[in-house]
Amino acid sequence: MDLTALRIFVRVAELGSFTQTADQLGLAKGRVSAAVQKLEMQVGTRLLQRTTRQVRLTADGEQFLGRCKALIEDAENLQAMFQPVKSGLRGRLRIDLPTALARRLIIPRLPEFLAENPALELGISTTDHQVDLIHEGFDCVLRVGFLRDTELVARPVGAMQMCNLASPAYLAVYGTPTTLADLDQHRIVHYAAKLGTQGAGWEYLEGTQRRLHPMRSAIVVNGTDAAQAACLAGLGMVQAPLVGAQHLIDAGQLVSVMPDLTAAAMPVTLLYPHRRQVPPRVQGILNWLTQVLETFLQDADAATSLPSSTPAPRHIGR
């Protein structure tokens, strides 16, 4: 049985679309359709129910999908079983990373990683929005922020210390706040994954509880780069991970304010699909990302858990 056809079938089943599968795998749509049809002929049953609006698994297809995934994983592990260690990882990997972490910490270290793994083909998506790992075809994603319930495997990496920042120009106009009451006279650059969906506020810790002090904002952004640029332009204060702002503090472009009223440290987590056995290339990138990031992060226990009654975090760094 053709492993390529099995991989195509799995992706079609996960995405529910021949077109999206063709786009992700870089194949013609006709080839994707032909591969699935040939597979159905080989196993002697219809695996997918096709309509003009959707593609979904049949009852036989659901049973076949689980066995199919296991067979692919076994084949990959068998193929790598006797590969010399010095040959490194091989195959294709697709990962999604937060923009700031990718730019400042991860991509600068990639040359050494790829030099050790010359047969590895790496695709990197950078975004500050949560992606659908399964339906968008990623092998793993790195997320900064408190996780809600997820069916993915979560591997804690650490926690990012947060800081409060303002530009010298902003402070010259509005003054330097020292108390929560002072914030009523100030503005915050409001970060929201979806514009207009959340009210602006100043996050802080009261003991181990996360609190939110409502604030006015002159601008709402949905990206870390835009938030940082807005802060530099004097449009308001921001609450952001220290690791992405330290160079601006050192250069005097941003000033730390109210250090005793910072937001809770943000957990950093690697997520990947449930699998009986994680392919060597995925395990390799998980280990490498952990090694790269651990130098810059606090222990994972530094991140305060998210009570169910607590509103979703509003500061930067997803």
Structural overview:
This protein has 318 residues and is α/β, with parallel strands linked by helices. Helix content is 34%, strand content 24%. The protein has helices spanning 3-15, 18-25, 29-43, 59-80, 99-106, 110-116, 168-174, 224-232, 246-250, 280-294, and strands at residues 48-50, 55-57, 90-97, 119-126, 140-144, 153-160, 162-166, 187-191, 201-206, 209-214, 216-221, 238-241, 255-256, 266-272. Helix 1 (3-15) crosses helix 3 (29-43). It contains ten helices and 14 strands. The strands form five sheets. It has a five-stranded mixed sheet. Strands 12-7-13 form a three-stranded antiparallel sheet. It has two domains: 3-80, Arc Repressor Mutant, subunit A; 86-318, D-Maltodextrin-Binding Protein, domain 2. InterPro entries: LysR-type_TF_proteobact-type, LysR_HTH_N, LysR_subst-bd, WH-like_DNA-bd_sf, WH_DNA-bd_sf.
